[in-house]
Amino acid sequence: MRKAGLGLSLAVAASLALTSCGEAPDETTSSDSGETTSDFLPCIVSDAGGFDDKSFNQLSYEGVQQAADELGADFKAVESNSESDYAPNMESLVAEGCDVIVSVGFALSAATVESATANPDLPYVLIDDQADNDFDGTKDADNIKPLLYDTAQAAFLAGYAAADFSKTGTVGTYGGAEYPTVTIFMDGYYQGVQYYNEQKGADVQVVGWDGSTGSFTGGFSANQKATNTAQQILDQGADVILPVGGPIYQGALTAIADSGSDAVMIGTDADLYESDPNSQDVVFTSILKNMKLSTYEAVMSVADEDFDAEAYVGTLDNDGVGIASFHDYEGEVSDSLQGELDDITAGIIDGSIPVTSYLN
């Protein structure tokens, strides 16, 4: 089996004109055509993963970029390197006169609510959080549109497939920060493995998450902690591993390559096989969040003066979540697997196969 090398690029793609963290953005990114025909100004701020995370920040950025291209507008993007950057970055975009501000990730919820409360006439799009920081069941600001994704549904499919593919009878997962938007993947993955065991009379084990506690790196950096955590999962016999948390998947790539393991990896948010060619040799599938489309649609609704602050929830039923193909492993999965996944998908959609997450 071919293995990924260690030459992992962390550089921001040359096409991304991103500003430094904690400072007012001093660069405007133009549409691909280079022609600006609209004065509408969409803006976006990343979490600490950065816009080149091959994951949710990058997909959201691409959604804003697509909207700007279609409108013939410029857009502004500001990148955060740490939690202390969130509030200053939000306010720098307000000062720039943005017409809509997209904030990416659960961690930006408090800063987004604070900014939205201070600017009630400015629309905000908050990705991966309900903007309910006081946990009273309602949004904390009426001008925020949450974009949410019930990725437990898609992760359930990935967990079932992982259990079916595993040769060791052990699969694993680990997360970045222990946020609900991280553990929702791990919950679905765990439930999918348990469902496989029930249906097949099997006993595939999950390491790194037991349904309530598990392994976390404490952040979203592609650092030694991510590699060490992945190695600990592999050392417990896992031959399918699900890293959840943007760039931390690179720790799994390194651990698999260093150990000479035959393990495979499951990507999150984007189809990792497509977004990071360095990963192709070990990517089994990816759990997808259609963030680019939903971000694009939310920005366009503001431009069309049709902004609706009601929360959007991506599911299998509305194609907001899903799983990618098995790519190079298509010939190695069981002949019956795809049919079983199709049946499970139908069952999840009609409610006959329950999948629980913090969203339900």
UniProtKB/TrEMBL annotation:
InterPro entries: BMP_lipoprotein, Peripla_BP_I, PnrA-like. Residues 45-340 form the ABC transporter substrate-binding protein PnrA-like domain. It is a lipid-anchor. One of its GO terms (cellular component) is plasma membrane. Residues 1-24 form the signal peptide. It is found in: Cell membrane. Keywords: Cell membrane, Lipoprotein, Membrane, Signal. Its main location: membrane. The keyword Transcription regulation does not apply. Belongs to the BMP lipoprotein family. This is BMP family ABC transporter substrate-binding protein. It comes from Nocardioides bruguierae. The lineage of its organism: Bacteria, Bacillati, Actinomycetota, Actinomycetes, Propionibacteriales.
